[in-house]
């Protein structure tokens, strides 16, 4: 049986590692956060207190906050690419950028390590249910060989091309969720300013041609002022920053998306990295003098 070493057992990684255990894989795991490590141990992951488990794995999987952590894990002198056995496959599930992907590929060349990028969509609920969408880039033979790993974590699985193709698809796809969030906030505000109660305005949107997953999932959190603490503004702002970097690198002119990226960056500046992503709404609420959750009738 394939021995997996799983690095990064946070909201997404912890749930994915648990599903790999359920599917019958031997999974060692590490996370520098002791609470995450303990939670993973409760699901059957063998919790290690260092990342040295790289050395004995057949497959290393990582679900890390972003490019900085992926580069640090992979490229440092004592990093993954130096330690793993020749023939190991590294599947990175993080939302990462193309520049880091290129640096990893250059460094991996000649080390007999196969790189697969497999970022995901579906949030912590999809990760827990094993129903994520998985966007895969990497050599076809290796992707096929490890298909059962992808089936253990995802329901919609697409192999899109060479290494990096998954990161591209993930970044392009995720921008829509954020642009819809900002436009939802503004549509709510327009109605509220005109005299419609926030909860009623949301209900009208949910039953209109503008209905969406974002309206159904994030709308109630915005209107209630709970702002969805399960996903931090740091990750949202990172996703939009990666999108704008990718737009520059491929030559795409996306002025509306640039405004959305700036709104997420401003939310992180105002409220701090650990704040919930939907605090983006509070900027609009404050600027317009209407705090939705204070206006419930
Ligand atoms: P998270 O912050 O909950 O988890 C990341 C984990 O990585 C943390 O537990 C942290 O302690 C750990 N970590 C940091 N540096 C590490 C290192 N050097 N070695 C080992 N572990 C390290 O984040 P998350 O929500 O689980 O997201 C993980 C990735 O999945 C991100 O790239 C994110 O953009 C992406 N993603 C998240 C969601 C979501 O809804 N949360 C959805 C799709 C994709």
Give a quick set of tags describing it.
N-(1-d-carboxylethyl)-l-norvaline Dehydrogenase, domain 2, alpha/beta, 13% strand, Rossmann fold, 297 residues, 9 strands, binds nicotinamide-adenine-dinucleotide
3D architecture notes:
This protein is α/β, with parallel strands linked by helices and 297 residues long. The chain folds into 2 domains: 160 residues, NAD(P)-binding Rossmann-like Domain (Rossmann fold); 126 residues, Orthogonal Bundle (N-(1-d-carboxylethyl)-l-norvaline Dehydrogenase, domain 2), CATH 1.10.1040.10. The strands form 2 sheets. It has a 6-stranded parallel beta sheet, with helices on both faces. A 3-stranded mixed beta sheet has the order 7-8-9. Helix 1 packs parallel to helix 2, helix 3 runs parallel beside helix 5 and helix 9 crosses helix 13. The longest helix has 29 residues. The chain is elongated. The N and C termini lie far apart (58 Å). Bound molecules: nicotinamide-adenine-dinucleotide. The site of nicotinamide-adenine-dinucleotide (NAD) has 27 residues, from helix 1, helix 3, strand 7 and helix 6.
